[in-house]
Amino acid sequence: MDLQLTEEQLMIQQAARDFAQTELLPGVIERDEHSIFPHEQVKKMAELGFLGMMVDPKYGGAGLDSVSYVLAMEEIAKIDASAAVIMSVNNSLVCAGLEKYCNEEQKQKYLVPLAQGDVIGAFCLSEPEAGSDATSQKTTAKDMGDYYLLNGTKNWITNGGNASTYVVIAHTHPEKGHKGINAFIVEKGWEGFEIGPKENKMGIRGSDTHSLMFTDVKVPKENRIGEDGFGFNFAMGVLNGGRIGIASQALGIASGAYELALKYAQERKSFGKPIIQHQAIAFKLADMATHITAARMLCFKAAYEKDCGQDISLSGAMAKLYASTTAMDVTTEAVQIHGGNGYVREYHVERMMRDAKITQIYEGTSEIQKIVISRGIAK
Ligand code: CAA
Ligand code: FAD
């Protein structure tokens, strides 16, 4: 693995940094405060190719490698973790899944507009009774010959209200356990498909999260992804890559909070000197910098292995577990370093602390990552 970034990777990193500073920073506090979805900013992300970064250009993507994706995600999440999760779901859960597992017709119809960012996508696995225990799907898709009849409820769906294309996991043969699960492409507006109210969340408040209700929704047979019974392996395969996206989001939240804390510690004085000259504060910053660097390396390792076509279940889980813990620890310390100022909106770090928490919960909680890692190392 080459630790030297290429010219192209540095260019992507700079483009993402510039975009985050000029387009995401203004208004980020207001969007958080009022739970405003960043419509205009998402459009600009599409123009920059950030919504289909790793998709082959023949399907409308930017054709970049996964390390470039990590770099862009970090820069965007440094400023606005909500924009970052919208981007991560579209890239690593929806586009990546469709590109890897769909047939040509499905790719032309659904992947191209998603990769170009003309529309955005959502990935619908979680249910009220099937979160960590993802094989316990209650949503069903009954085979009716040339279509499936979809019934059930999904919850916690990111981009739930703003997406146009939904990848929905459902049981077709509950008696077969996880081998009876399938994945389907569902379009917004189909009869019987209802979107619940937006969740009022602790963090990532600029991204929208909804429950989705399906009542006798007719899904054409050609919208099933892969062979009959492939749905759970599809979901797990997609999530391995998705975890690199969320690890990078967590990395960005951590490095954004660290940069603010470092600057603050150099400027704020107490007892006649900048607080960074108090060893207690300097050591916090030393720990923060070390953990962030380690988290970045784990993200790069998983991204590199993905591009090499290796099994990334272990490296993706490790990156997500470590980066999300780092995000929570670093943002908490960043608030501490800011003292009272850390506790109010305009200094950003309190939002980052709220945003960090979700990275330990979604795309598999930290406890689930440890299950994946421990099973992997025992093999
Ligand atoms: N990669 C590839 N395949 C995997 C896998 C992985 N990481 N983990 C499990 N599998 C496969 C297994 O190989 C097995 O397939 P076969 O029978 O064909 O070999 C199948 O999945 C079932 O595996 P297990 O017997 O291990 O199933 P389990 O029920 O004991 O545990 C689990 C599975 C790992 C805990 C899984 O349920 C899981 O990952 N849960 C977390 C769910 C999750 O991450 N949800 C995220 C929703 S999306 C989201 O959150 C988006 C967002 O926030 C923005
Ligand atoms: P539970 O599974 O009920 O877990 C509760 C607690 O028990 C957790 O601490 C968990 O780690 C622990 N636990 C459970 N089982 C075990 C075990 N075997 N061993 C040890 N500990 C265990 N889902 C989607 O499908 N698509 C999305 O776009 C999406 N976006 C989300 C956005 C937000 C803001 C949120 C909050 C969630 C989102 N999710 C999404 C759902 C998310 O993936 C789940 O919340 C997560 O997987 C945990 O499931 P749960 O909430 O049902 O918790």
UniProtKB/TrEMBL annotation:
Keywords, in A-Z order: FAD, Flavoprotein, Oxidoreductase
Protein name: Cyclohex-1-ene-1-carbonyl-CoA dehydrogenase
Residue intervals of the Acyl-CoA dehydrogenase/oxidase C-terminal domain: 231-377
Top-rank lineage group of the source organism: Bacteria
Single GO molecular function: flavin adenine dinucleotide binding
Family: Belongs to the acyl-CoA dehydrogenase family.
Cofactor: FAD
Class of this enzyme: oxidoreductase
Documented EC number(s): 1.3.8.10
Domain Acyl-CoA dehydrogenase/oxidase N-terminal: residue ranges: 6-118
Record-annotated Acyl-CoA oxidase/dehydrogenase middle domain positions: 122-217
